Amino acid sequence: MAMFVMKPISLMLLYLLLVGVAISTAPLTAGNNDHRQFVYSGFANASLTLDGTASITPSGLLELTNSTAMSMGRAFFPDPLRLRDPSPTGTVQSFSASFVFGIISVYDMMSSHGLTLFVAPSKNFPAMPVQYLGLFDGSNNGNASNHIFAVELDTWQNVDFGDINNNHVGIDVNGLTSVRSYPAGFFHDQNGTFRNLTLSSQEAMQVWVEYDREKTRVDVTLAPLAMAKPREPTVSAICNLSDVLTDVAYIGFSSSTGKINTQHYVLGWSFAMNSPAPSIDLTMLPKLPRHHPKGRRSWVLEIVLPVATAALLLSLGAIAFLLVRRHFRYAEVRDNWESDFGPHRFSYKDLFHATGGFENKNLLGVGGFGRVYKGVLPRSRLKVAVKKVSHDSRQGMKEFIAEIVSLGRLQNRNLVQLLGYCRRKGELLLVYEYMPNGSLDKYLHNGKEGNVVLSWAQRFRIIKGIASGLLYLHEEWEKVVVHRDIKASNVLLDDEMNGRLGDFGLARLYDHGADPQTTHVVGTIGYLAPELARSGNAAPATDVFAFGIFVLEVTCGQRPVNHQNTQDSQVMLVDWVLDKVQKGSFGDTVDSRLKGRHDGGEAYLALKIGLLCSHPFADARPTMRQVMQYFGGEIQPPDLCFEVLACMQREELDPYIISSRLSSTTRISAMSDVSGGR
Ligand SMILES: *[C@@H]1O[C@H](CO)[C@@H](O)[C@H](O)[C@H]1NC(C)=O
Ligand SMILES: *[C@@H]1O[C@H](CO)[C@@H](O)[C@H](O)[C@H]1NC(C)=O
Ligand SMILES: *[C@@H]1O[C@H](CO)[C@@H](O)[C@H](O)[C@H]1NC(C)=O
Ligand SMILES: *[C@@H]1O[C@H](CO)[C@@H](O)[C@H](O)[C@H]1NC(C)=O
Ligand SMILES: *[C@@H]1O[C@H](CO)[C@@H](O)[C@H](O)[C@H]1NC(C)=O
Ligand SMILES: *[C@@H]1O[C@H](CO)[C@@H](O)[C@H](O)[C@H]1NC(C)=O
């Protein structure tokens, strides 16, 4: 926007009086022809004379150079100025100019080459880009016939012209070797200290250029935009411009670029003869284009950004991986019906952490139903045993869970308490209270605890305890629960060496096995009742059979099936005991490791009950309630008559032979006892 203002006549007269110039018609006529002052607060609609790359942008910026390398651009105020007063000895009058500029470079804090405000005799004088700033050329630099005065804002140190640095303000007369120059910056009004400014900082700055005719002094002052003009100029020079400039002259800007693509902008401009330059309306100024200089870009875009992007992608990938892993690692299966058992449901994550990720060092044992791990629950610090049972079928799961959860509700001191469960795909996890002394079979047979000999009192208490636990399952709970897998390795010992029956109900799960082709006969060879091997139907009586074998095992300290010296001959414990009984040497059957330190009556009772319970005919076995009564002495057990003994020895009813025949055609699960323990 241009404002061509003719000074009001009255002001002009006042001025003439003040400076003491004799009143004549000359200044008035001169005033009629001269544009004495102008202000551009932005250049929209301004009719400047442009050449080279200079243009006015739609937003009103005077763009002297666009980002073309090795280019130059100039812009002139369109009309000539009459600088000298019209007297015969007319000297160049005082004038002042101010402008706002901005230098935008592709590099941070580095640009080429600079821009000037100049006064020149014509609008068409030879000039070159790069170091000549669009003001001079290779031949006329420094030639007094140029009649050019300029203020340079130079961002390139050219030693040919004696440049002090690559960021300076210089006063030039007829050439680029400055009369005076100084680093770009300003002096604080308050304390006179100098503050550097960077010309190519991409920030707009303001410059004031003032010529004092009386003192023949040029003052150039630089300041950040929006700062009042500092009192102390940045650089000044005594310089009689009357010796330099022509009477009729043109004022304008020139600029050039070198190899670094730089845009030189002028945002606003004002000029006045014989008075301070009118102030530019800073609020009206167009905005400098936002530019990410290459220096910063090379850091931010070319190194930091790719690295940051890669890092971001990596971390997103890692998070996704962790989430997916977490999803799969801790994935569970949950059905609607389980809401009833909510309190008994453990999260897989808790169990995973409790057992140290099911680490092998926490493995307590491997049984027929799966691996058992020791664990400590994260919040309660409660010690637990976690049994991992492979199970693919959802069939029967509801009934099974309902049963074990309901069993877990009532505490029986002869049952290992089930604390809860968790389900995953193909896996069921059962959480039991932890039994610090492990399983009984390890004490009975050669194992880790094999050298610890359980006393007779301990054994008798364990036998009675298991009988009581089994009675509870068979008769004292809401419904009949058949354990199906009674054996020494399923009897766990608590901290007081009380026997506790574990794994109850678990066998039931295998009645609904995933594979309909196989009939799972659950149980352990040696403990299998003959009728179970025949029909596969578990009943309380089949538990009683296994209990009988168990009693014999504990009393005699021998496995249900003994491998004798020769590999082929396997002797059933029952047969061995029967043999001894028939020979009248009952006492020889009691575990020799007790070294006779046992109660003979109790041992006889236990052996008798063991034999009665392991009767081949289910109907001939006592119930668990009767067994408890025998132990309690309320009822005398029947005598082992000859018929009974003979009947038990009939070979075709031999439980082992029947079950081993069966095992050749039918898969027998849970053979853990034969394969070497839980
Ligand atoms: C420039 O001129 C156009 C039309 O001539 C006008 O609409 C616009 O307001 C002017 N802009 C300025 C900043 O004077
Ligand atoms: C710079 O200006 C020149 C001359 O006006 C023009 O040919 C060129 O395309 C411009 N370059 C850019 C990047 O604007
Ligand atoms: C200065 O320029 C004028 C006119 O172009 C020329 O005649 C003169 O020789 C030049 N002087 C020098 C020292 O180059
Ligand atoms: C001088 O004054 C300016 C403005 O008050 C202040 O920012 C600067 O720190 C001062 N410098 C010294 C050396 O006191
Ligand atoms: C200002 O810049 C000059 C030249 O680059 C340097 O010597 C001086 O130390 C700078 N001064 C301050 C205060 O930064
Ligand atoms: C400046 O130069 C002109 C012409 O050479 C001369 O008339 C005038 O006296 C000079 N001014 C000063 C202050 O020296």
From TrEMBL:
InterPro entries: ConA-like_dom_sf, Kinase-like_dom_sf, L-type_Lectin-RKs, Legume_lectin_dom, Prot_kinase_dom, Protein_kinase_ATP_BS, Ser/Thr_kinase_AS
Ranges in a coiled coil: none
Top EC class of this enzyme: transferase
Residues annotated as signal peptide: 1-24
GO biological process: negative regulation of response to salt stress
Gene Ontology cellular-component terms listed: plasma membrane
Membrane topology classification: Single-pass type I membrane protein
Catalysis performed (reactions): L-seryl-[protein] + ATP = O-phospho-L-seryl-[protein] + ADP + H(+); L-threonyl-[protein] + ATP = O-phospho-L-threonyl-[protein] + ADP + H(+)
Binding site for ATP: 388
Annotated EC: 2.7.11.1
SMART domains: S_TKc
Chief localisation class: membrane
TM spans (from-to): 299-324
Xref: Pfam families: Lectin_legB, Pkinase
All copies of domain Protein kinase, residue ranges: 358-631
Keywords associated with the record: ATP-binding, Cell membrane, Glycoprotein, Kinase, Lectin, Membrane, Nucleotide-binding, Receptor, Serine/threonine-protein kinase, Signal, Transferase, Transmembrane, Transmembrane helix
GO molecular function, one term: ATP binding
Localization in the cell: Cell membrane; Membrane
Cited PANTHER family: PTHR27007
Family in the record: In the C-terminal section; belongs to the protein kinase superfamily. Ser/Thr protein kinase family. In the N-terminal section; belongs to the leguminous lectin family.
Protein name as catalogued: non-specific serine/threonine protein kinase
Annotated organism of origin: Panicum hallii var. hallii
